[in-house]
Write a structure and sequence with these properties.
The chain is mainly alpha-helical and 328 residues long. The chain contains 12 helices and no strands. α7 packs antiparallel against α8 and α7 packs antiparallel against α12. It is globular. The C terminus is likely disordered.
């Protein structure tokens, strides 16, 4: 495609393909297949996905150097097709019921000794959820944090270079945000056994605010590195905990529709963040006040998450609450 319209059309197609194959549909599939081991299953998927850029950014650079970018794209497309399409077409199934199983791979009442049949909570449908105040508190919390998180990434490098750091260090520091995500997901899964998901997410949002304070106030490189590690850890943990929270609150049957709706709000928020932060910088002319504003937004997101948890406890029967503060 040689035209500008064709270029945008290609990117629109890539965006649609990404929305149909990345985390949201993967989490929807895992939620249908796992309940007791859902956290571990999501952790394994996100750890594997966390190494995608580690593998394919250098590989892409090598292919572009050897073949030029057009041929490199064709090689990557062929690799993707060979490694993913047959597996999805021949092996993957939408529901365990398609194989005569129920959640967590157990047999569905075949009468064999020692086989435990479990009936998972069917959950609420999207129409009910959209009338639930708790959902809107959750959505508001995640949307606010999504805007703040994307905005911070947009201004990170210009903020660091503008205050005197060299571009190579600024780029390396920003790259640590991605590297810190994998370790944070492991820690989040470990702490999730002892702390409710709502409390853990609120704590992570508060940690993001603290990280921005460190980034502004600690001018030495040690402070910058600590701040970006904290920011990356927060992003990684929330990616893993958000689908678990939706599944805990609303069940597995309609998880895809509910999670997809929330993801739509987050995508819109993330799309508006670069525009909004750019306009704000044009009006103010300084990055530090914008970072303080993002810290305030993270604090607000943490508060909204706690309100969502309190509202959920008030509206949920006591028999449906688990001892650890989560919800069944």
């Amino acid at each position: 495609l040689e035209s500008v319209a064709g270029y945008y059309l290609a990117w629109a197609g890539i965006g649609i393909a990404m929305s149909l194959t990345l985390y949201e549909p993967a989490f929807a599939t895992l939620t249908r297949w796992f309940e007791r081991d859902r956290g571990r299953a999501m952790l394994l998927v996100t750890i594997a996905a966390g190494f995608a850029s580690t593998i394919f950014l250098p590989l892409s650079g090598l292919l572009v150097e050897r073949l030029a970018w057009r041929d490199a794209v064709l090689v990557l497309a062929a690799t993707l097709a060979v490694l993913t399409i047959p597996f999805h077409a021949l092996v993957l199934r939408r529901r365990p019921e398609d194989l005569g199983l129920v959640v967590d791979g157990e047999r569905s009442g075949d009468g064999e000794p020692g086989v435990r049949t479990r009936v998972s909570n069917p959950g609420m449908n999207l129409q009910w959820v959209l009338r639930d105040q708790t959902f809107w508190w959750l959505a508001g919390s995640f949307v606010i944090q999504s805007f703040a998180g994307v905005a911070v990434i947009v201004i990170m490098i210009p903020y660091l270079t503008g205050r005197g750091d060299d571009p190579a260090f600024a780029a390396a520091a920003a790259g640590l945000i991605g590297a810190a995500q994998v370790a944070a997901r492991i820690l989040a899964t470990m702490f999730g056994k002892y702390v409710s998901t709502v409390t853990l997410i609120a704590a992570v949002f508060a940690l993001q605010a603290i990280a921005l304070g460190v980034l502004i106030g600690w001018q030495e490189r040690q402070g910058i590195l600590l701040a970006v590690i904290m920011l990356g850890a927060g992003r990684g943990a929330v990616t893993l905990m958000r689908p678990q929270l939706i599944a805990d609150f609303y069940g597995r049957t309609h998880f895809g529709a509910i999670s997809g709706t929330l993801a739509g709000f987050l995508t819109l928020s993330g799309s508006l963040a670069p525009i909004g932060i750019g306009l704000a910088y044009a009006a103010i002319g300084s990055y530090a006040p914008l970072l303080w504003g993002m810290a305030a937004m993270s604090t607000l997101a943490a508060a909204a998450m706690l309100v969502a948890g309190q509202h959920r406890r008030r509206t949920l029967p006591e028999s449906a609450q688990r001892p650890d503060g989560a919800y069944s």
